[in-house]
Amino acid sequence: MRAALPDILDISHQPMNAVAPKISFVSLGCPKALVDSERIITSLRSEGYELSKSHAGADLVIVNTCGFLDSAKAESLEAIGSAMAENGKVIVTGCMGAEPEQIRDVFPNVLAITGPQAYESVVSAVHQAVPPKHDPFVDLVPDQGIKLTPRHYAYLKISEGCNNRCTFCIIPKLRGDLVSRPIGDVLREAEKLAKAGVKELLVISQDTSAYGLDIKYAPSMFKDREIRTRFFELARELGQMGMWVRLHYVYPYPHVDEVIPLMQEGVVLPYLDIPFQHASPNVLKAMKRPAHQDRTLDRIRKWRDICPDLAIRSTFIVGFPGETEEDMDILVDWLKEAKLERVGAFKYEPVKGAPANDLGLDLIPEEVKEARWHRFMKAQAEISARIVKGRVGKRIQVIIDEAGPTVAKGRSKWDAPEIDGNVYVASRRPLRAGDIVTEKIERADAYDLHGVAV
Ligand code: SF4
Fold first, then answer.
1. Distance from Cα 420 to the centre of ligand 1, integer Å
2. Is 356 a pocket residue for ligand 1 (Cβ < 6 Å)?
3. Is 33 in contact with 94 (CB distance < 8 Å)?
4. Protein residue with its CA nearest to atom 1 in ligand 1
C-alpha cells in the first residue's frame, strides 16, 4: 500500500520560511507500518520540515518499506528505485531495513538504512542529510500528531512485536517479542484522536488479544483511575470515547469471549479480524499457529449466540508446504461451517529467513496453488453472497468515507476500510466524510450493499 498524502499534509498555503527543507515520503506495507510513518512524519514536521507530494521537488525522500513477502520486497525495491531516479537522496526504513544488505546490493548509494520502529535513527539520518532550518514549529503539529488516514478514521497501535512463532512469518525476527504500550498512553492517544474528529478507531498490533501479556497486565493511570493493560479493559475503555472501535488481529483465545458481550451492547463494533490462516490440523501444526482450530468452530458458534450481529473477517494461506488435497478438503469444509463474513486468501510465498523453508516439507507447485486458491475463493464467494443478500431490507448504520453528488460511499459496522466491502448511500441531503447515517438496504451485489439514507 502506498499512502497517498492527504490534504492535511499539503501545507503549501501555510506561512512558513521559504527555505524549509522538503521531504517526500513513501509509506508501504501494512497499517502498522503506516503508524510508523505517521510517527516519523509527526517528528519531522515538529522540527519544521515540509512534506513534498513529488520526489522531484523534495530535498530528500524517505521510503518506509515492507519486507513481509517477497512480492512486498520487490515493491519496496521498486519504490526505492523510483526515488533514486527522481531524486537521488534517499533514506530507507521499515521492515526491509532489518536486512540492509538486500538494499545496498541493489542501491549502494542510498544515504541511510534503518530498521522498523527506528524513528530516532530515521530522524537523525534526515538531520545529517538535510539539517533542519528552523526552531521547532511545535505549534504547526496538531496535538494528535500527523495522520496519513482520512480525518474520520485512525489506526491505533497498541503494541509492537509478537511472541508467536508462526513458521511462515519473519515479523518476530524483524520486530522482536511483544512490547505492549501501557494502557494509559494508548487511551490518551485515543482521546486526542477523538477530540481531533476521528469517528472510527482501528486497533492494530501483531496480536491484539495478547495485549499486556509481556507486562503482566500491569495497571496504569488514566484520568485518576488505575486500569489494567489488558485486551478486555482496552476494548471497554475505548468503547466509551464516542468512536466506532474496530479490533484487528485478534486470536480466538478463551479470554476473547469476554469482549463479545461488549459487542452485543454496542460498546465496540461487532467485528473481529482473526487471521485463521488454515483449518487443517496438519497444516496448522506445520505453521505453528497459536490457536486450536478444532475448538474454534465451537467458539465462533458461542460468540454468535451471544452477538448474532458479529462479523468475522479472516485471511488464509493456501499452498503451504506439505498441504495435501485432504487438507484443502478440511479447509473448505471448515469454511462452509464457519460462514465467515469477510475472507481473503493468499497463495503461499516462501519468505527468506522464515522457518517454514527448513521444515523439509514439499513445496506445492504454482499451478496447484492457483487451483486451490480458486477453489477456496469460489467456496467463499458463495458464502459471502448469501450473507450480503441476507442484509437486504435491513436498516444499518453507515460511516461515510467519500461524499458524492447523489450517492456517497461508506462502510457498515461489518466493513473495515481498505479490506472489506463498501456501502453506497443515496441521499437527498449532502453527506460528508465521517458522517454516520442510517440506511435502508435495497440491494446487494457480490460484496457491496446499496440503499437510501432514512
Ligand atoms: S502471530 Fe504469527 S503471523 Fe502474526 S506476527 Fe506473530 S508470528 Fe507473525
1. 21
2. no
3. yes
4. 164
Q: How many other C-beta atoms lie within 10 A of the C-beta of residue 367?
A: 8
Phi/psi at 180 (nearest 5 deg)?
A: -90, 140
Summarised one tens digit per residue, pLDDT across range 422-443 is 999 999 888 999 999 999 999 9
Q: Tell me the one-letter amino acid at 98.
A: A
Q: For ligand 1, is residue 26 a contact (CB within 6 Å)? A: no
Taking only the tens place, the pLDDT of each residue in 19-49 is 678 899 998 888 778 888 887 887 787 677 8
Per-residue cell: 329: 478438503
- Local structure of 150: helix, strand or coil: coil
Place of cell 524483524: 174
H-helix or E-strand containing 247? strand 244-247
Quote the pTM value: 0.75
Ligand 1 contact via 178 beta carbon (within 6 Å): no
Q: Which of 171, 284, 317 to mutate to test the pocket of ligand 1 (most atoms within 8 A of CB)?
A: 171
Q: What is the pLDDT of residues 328-375, one digit of tens each?
A: 999 999 999 999 999 999 999 888 888 998 899 999 999 999 999 999
Query: Could you tell me if the CB of 206 is within 6 A of ligand 1?
Result: yes
DSSP letters for 42-84: HHHHHTT-EEESSSTT-SEEEEEE--SSHHHHHHHHHHHHHHH
With vertex at residue 78, the alpha carbon angle to CA 77 and CA 84, rounded to the nearest 5 degrees, is: 85
Which CB contacts under 8 angstroms, 24+ apart, belong to 133-139? 133/17, 133/19, 133/20, 133/21, 133/48, 134/17, 134/20, 134/47, 134/48, 135/48, 136/46, 136/47, 136/48, 137/16, 137/45, 137/46, 137/47, 137/48, 138/46
Contacts 24+ apart (CB under 8 A), 68-72: 68/29, 68/30, 68/95, 68/169, 68/170, 68/171, 68/351, 69/349, 69/351, 70/349, 70/350, 70/351, 70/352, 71/349, 72/28, 72/29
Cα(318)–Cα(310) distance, integer angstroms? 25
